Amino acid sequence: MANLAASGELMNRLLVYALGIWICLSFCGVFNGIAREAFITPNVGDYAAHVISTATLICALLIVTYLFLKYVNIPYENKDLIAIGIIWIIMTISFEFLFGHFVVGHTWEKLFADYNILNGRVWSLVLVTTLFGPLAIGSRMLQKHKAGAQ
Question: Domain span at residue 17?
């Protein structure tokens, strides 16, 4: 019974750290958007800036996720990584719509338009990375760790 309580406590700590990392990721996203509007769009146009910005944010997400999982110093399993991805995606979509609409003032139509991959909007790839990045990176790290322990 003590192991279950300790395991639950470790998972809670891991998720609290994951929430803190998501805050860092949200700053990366905001900075990425500011850089896109200030520097990239004026030089290459809206669509190319959207694609470049999406690619750079995906890279940032993967790097931060890797560093988080490498240095978190709390044991985790694939189910924990799935939980992190789900929490991050819910928070990301919520932030995108709430901040985008109520703070920045974007219309709902504009916000939803970024999710239309049929119109060339690749923002959805950021969401896929946010959801599956922790599992993809963390499961690979777990495999390496298990292989090194044998």
Answer: 2-149
Asked if residues 1 and 63 have their Cβ atoms less than 8 Å apart, the reply is no
What is the reported pLDDT for 8?
A: 78
Compute the half-sphere exposure of residue 97: CA atoms within 13 Å on the CB side of its CA. 10
Supply the pTM of this predicted model.
Answer: 0.89
Q: How far apart are CA 79 and CA 47, in angstroms?
A: 37
Helix (H) or strand (E) holding 29: helix 2-35
Q: How far apart are CA 125 and CA 17, in angstroms?
A: 24
pLDDT reported for residue 2? 45
Q: Which residues of the chain have pLDDT under 50?
A: 1-2, 4
Number of domains in the chain: 1
Residue position matching structure tokens 């690749």: 122
Q: Indicate the DSSP class of residue 103.
A: I
Calculate the dihedral angle through the C-alpha atoms of 139, 140, 144, 150, rounding to the nearest 10 degrees: 40
Q: Pull the structure tokens for residue 101.
A: 């609409």
